[in-house]
# Entry
Amino acid sequence: AQSVTQLGSHVSVSEGALVLLRCNYSSSVPPYLFWYVQYPNQGLQLLLKYTTGATLVKGINGFEAEFKKSETSFHLTKPSAHMSDAAEYFCAVSPNFGNEKLTFGTGTRLTIIP
Amino acid sequence: EAQVTQNPRYLITVTGKKLTVTCSQNMNHEYMSWYRQDPGLGLRQIYYSMNVEVTDKGDVPEGYKVSRKEKRNFPLILESPSPNQTSLYFCASSTLGAKPYEQYFGPGTRLTVT
# Structure
């Protein structure tokens, strides 16, 4: 069984400030981990993914995430927020074998304060 | 352009009136899936298909049907819609080549059942 917990359904940061969106996972097998972004009235777009190897993963639009097995975490960060980062962000997990089922967190809505 | 398309994008209907939401992908993907997105619940999988004529239930299949007669299409059928099926629906697809199987999402269908 697998699950994802995203702490904070809403996060607000000032433009230029650090963005930190938290994700903790639970998985009985080694997982693949993903961050997706959803802009208003759009579908989900993959930001980045962790498979194996390097634990610091870089994605699009300046985002990165670090896989910490000991903490079962995969937090998303961006050093300097931009107005265009305002969106909803979803963390997701899938097992690294078997079916392709993605289990999503409940999402974090990021607001950027000018 | 590689894409997943859904139709209609918006639909308002009445309780009990059968409807179909179409999903089509042009990437020759084997795997297709339907999700519903509800506030505070994230995305939950309704049904998925590993290939033509192979479908299986996800986490919330009650009240839905699917079929996979062609590789590119994966329609979602609501035989007798009810107000609790008011939601935002997403179709997704992925290849079953190298893991992890990155899922590509359609733009979403917003369904209102009155």
About this structure: The two ends of chain A are 41 Å apart (CA to CA). The longest strand of chain A covers residues 19-27. Chain A has no helices and eleven strands.
